[in-house]
Every structure is written in C-alpha cells, then in structure tokens.
Amino acid sequence: MALRSSREERKQNLIKNEYLDNPEKGMELISSLISMSKTKETMVQLLSKLDKIIRYDFINICSMENLPNEAEMYEKLKKAFDNVEDLTEFNALANKNIIAIGGGFSAGKSQFLNSILKDNILPTDTTPTTSIPSYITYGQEEIIYALNSFNLKVPINREAVKAISHDFNKKYNVSFSHIIKKLVIETSRFPYKNISFLDTPGYSKADALNRADNTDEKIAKEYLSSADYIIWLVDVSKGTIPDSDIKFIKDLKFQRPIFVVFNKADLKTSEQIKNVLEDAKRRFEEEGIMAEEVIAYNSLASKDNEIGGNKLQNFLEKINSRIKCTTVKQEFDKIFEVFEIYNHNEMIKAKEKLKLLNEIAVNIDLLEQDKHVEFRKLIEECQKKIKKQKRILAEFQSLSDRVNEIIGKIISNLNVVEENKEDRGIFGVAGLRDEKVLSDLKEDMKISGKISKMNAFGLYIECGFGEQVMIFIDDIKEKYSNNVEELFYVGKEVDVQIVEIDRVKKAIKVVVNL
Ligand SMILES: Nc1nc2c(ncn2[C@@H]2O[C@H](COP(=O)(O)OP(=O)(O)OP(=O)(O)O)[C@@H](O)[C@H]2O)c(=O)[nH]1
Ligand SMILES: [Mg+2]
C-alpha cells in the first residue's frame, strides 16, 4: 500500500502544472478563485431586484398610510425604472446630449444629418421617409441595431436602415413604427463624442398606415420634447415658416431656445433668403418662441453648407464641450423625497402638538376630572402617530437605501457619469410679510418649488407661500460658473428646505436643491 502511494506520488510529480511550478500563476489562480466567490450581480438580476422593490415594497409602505398622490408617484417610479432600463440597453447614449432634429416631412432632416456626418447613412426621399426615431452617435466601430417592441436589440446593417422607411411600409403593408421603437447607429465617422443626434419622422405627414395612437406626429412630439436640444428644419423653398410649424413648436413647450435651420437654401436667391430669415425672426418674437439662432443651410452642398456663417458648428461645439451627466439616481431620490417631505412634516406637526399637550398637562388639575381620560387619550394618540411616522420614515429610508445601492451598482457597472446631488445645494432667502404664513413654517421643513423667473439679479422660486425665494446671481455664478443655463431654467422643479426662520426680520433662509 505504502509502496503504491509513493509510486503514484512520483508519477504525480512528473506531471507539470503551471500553477504548482510557477508561484505567480498560483497566486493568480487563488485570487481569481477568491473573487469568484463574490459573484458579480448581472444587470438582469439588478433590474429585477429594482423592479420588485417598486412593485412590492413600495406598495407595502404606501398601504401603511394614505399618502397624497400615491398613484402618480407609482407611475413616476415606473417611468424612472424604464429610464434605468434604457440606460442599460443603450449604454452608447448615456452621457450624450441628445439633439433632436424636428420639422415637417421632407424638410430635409435626414439629409441635413447626412451632411453633418458627411455620410449618406440615413434614407432620404421626396416622399415621407423616416418612420422610426433614429439615434446617431459615436462608436469605435460601426454598430447598428433596432429596438423592437419586445425590447429586443436586433443588429441590422446599412441596407436595412435604408429599407425600414415609409416605402417599406407601403410595399409590405407593415407599419414599422409598431414593430420597431427606435434605431441606434453608432459610427466612427460621427464627429462629436458628447452628442447624439436624433432623426425624427416629419410631424406633418397624413398617417394612412399608422394607427391613430402612433402617428408620426405623436412619435415626433414624444421624442422631440424629451430631447436636450432641438434643431428645427424648415424647407425654405416653400417660403417662410408655416403656421403649423409654429403651432407644433409652441405645443412642445420646450424649455430651451430652439436652433432654426432654413434648409434647401440652394433653391432661393440670397435676397429671398434674407427676407425669409428676417420674417421668421419677427414671427418667433411675436409668438414668444425662443430661437437660439436662425440660419440658412444647404444640405446637398459638399462644403460650406451654412450660408454666410458658422453658427451651427459653434452651437454643436458648445454642446459637445460638456458631457451630460445621467440623472437616474436623482429621479428616484426626487420621488422618494416627496414621501419623505410629507411624512417628515407630519411628524413635525405631531411633535409640536405633543409638546403643546405636555405643556397643558402640567396644569391638568385645572381640567374637570371626567376630561382627564380624554386628555390622556389625546396624548396617547399623538405618541402613536409619532411612532407610526417614525416607522414609515425608517421603512422609506431602508427602501431608498436599497434602491440607491442597486442604481449605484448599475451605474458603476456601466461606467457612466451620474450627477452628484450633494454638490448642488445653494442658499436662498425670502421676506415673508404675512404673519400667518410665517407662523405655519417650521425650520427643517421641506417644500417643493419651481423656478418662476430669472433676471440680472438672480432667480426666483415659487414655493406656494406667497413671497418668492430669491437666489442671488453672484452666488449662482460662484457655484455653477460655466453651466448656469444648463441647470436653471424657468419651470424647473426644485427642492427647498427651510434652514432658518427669523421671525423678527420676517425672513427665511432656505437651501435649494436642484
Ligand atoms: N435642393 C435641396 N434638396 C434637399 C436639401 N435637403 C434635402 N433635400 C431633398 O429633400 C428631400 C427630402 O429630404 P429628407 O432628408 O428625406 O427629408 P426629411 O425631412 O428627413 O423627410 P421625412 O423623413 O419624410 O420627414 C430629398 O429628396 C432630399 O434630397 C437641400 O438642402 N437642397
Ligand atoms: Mg427623414
């Protein structure tokens, strides 16, 4: 027995094993085995965990107390979840400023993009052509895929991009806007690393083939309004900007100025173009539409496409100079904060009430004997309410911690840059003449606000208590030196928390979180 085992040992020793012979290799194996024990969660697992938290845990907490706008909040959470899912699906679009190209059909939107890319990748035609929103962005190598209605990414090639147009619909009588949600084209020819263009279907086409709920107009509106910037194309050969364009743009209620391009400038004389541009600028002013620039352009020219200027290139370079941070984490934070604010304020109210009752309790003997029990009941109810609010807040805290952890993992797995909320608080002040309003406010109270006005002195936030909170321009510039216009615009919702109440000066100091 002993003889056999020593023979086997000798035989074993003769077999070379790199992990045994080379200590470095051996250590590598050990460390890889150790790291294997901590299995990395896949994106699918993380998304499914997040989905469960929203569907079950969130609903459970809601059932503890009737919270205001519960249903609306649930919808917002689902939308925030969709955005996370989109981020994982379309990693190439993360941290990109989306510039959507809008306009009537055949204005030359696709040709315009081809002229910027110097590549005829998008299909163009005199008949309605683009039927699916198409993102074009930078990629190390050319990758094109279509996202179908089952949320599957289907790889396709250039020929297929050309085929999936309205013509294809006509030929096979299949409406692709029902089967394919969007196209993504990653190409190394794309000149701007921090931008993604979005080609949209012309809004003005009669949709014989599309169902009423999915018209080109609806698709165009949805995609244009969720973009970061809009370039609006008008066919200059048809004269000035059509009334229908004006109406469509106004309906979009877009927050930023739009960049307007009068395309097909080769079809008009320079005098005619000058008149059209002047007329359009006047119209925009009359209609209250903010236009970044209004230019003339020839999409068919091989160079010097913009007539007499470089405004388009400057605009694109300005946008390209900064990356767009993702905000998925913040979207969740914002939703949870509404709940937190409500419960936090309920707790403050209950605590104040308890304090008052305890003060009265010192003189309980002044009350008639039969009212003592009732009074104690009031105190007990108040204590119970505080306990309940504490429990709800703790549950919320745990839920939002878990959500943050999952999203943190997703963000780091994807290697995307997320906006850092901590860096964003800024102080503001408001004078409050109304005694009643002043007495209702408590320190630490959280309120939702909306930017209502901006001028040379600063910006103003409407918080629902009459006077507006003001943030001084110098403070803004000091903190957000180069991206003020990115972060602040009229209509933007912000969180406001009261830091200090000066009841003598009748003023409050707040911290505003963007
Ligand atoms: N002369 C001239 N023709 C142009 C110019 N730009 C586009 N076109 C032509 O106009 C037609 C429509 O162009 P598209 O790029 O398909 O227009 P679109 O706005 O994308 O149209 P839809 O996708 O159908 O909404 C095509 O025949 C283009 O060749 C231009 O600057 N000058
Ligand atoms: Mg097109």
TrEMBL record:
GO molecular function, one term: GTP binding
GO cellular component: membrane
Protein name according to UniProt: GTPase Era, involved in 16S rRNA processing
Species of provenance: Caminicella sporogenes DSM 14501
All copies of domain S1 motif, residue ranges: 444-513
Transmembrane regions listed in the UniProt entry: none
Protein's cellular compartments: Membrane
Keywords annotated in UniProt: GTP-binding, Hydrolase, Membrane, Nucleotide-binding
Taxonomic lineage of the native organism: Bacteria, Bacillati, Bacillota, Clostridia, Peptostreptococcales
InterPro entries: Dynamin_N, Mitofusin_fam, NA-bd_OB-fold, P-loop_NTPase, S1_domain
Main subcellular location: membrane
Keyword GTP-binding: yes
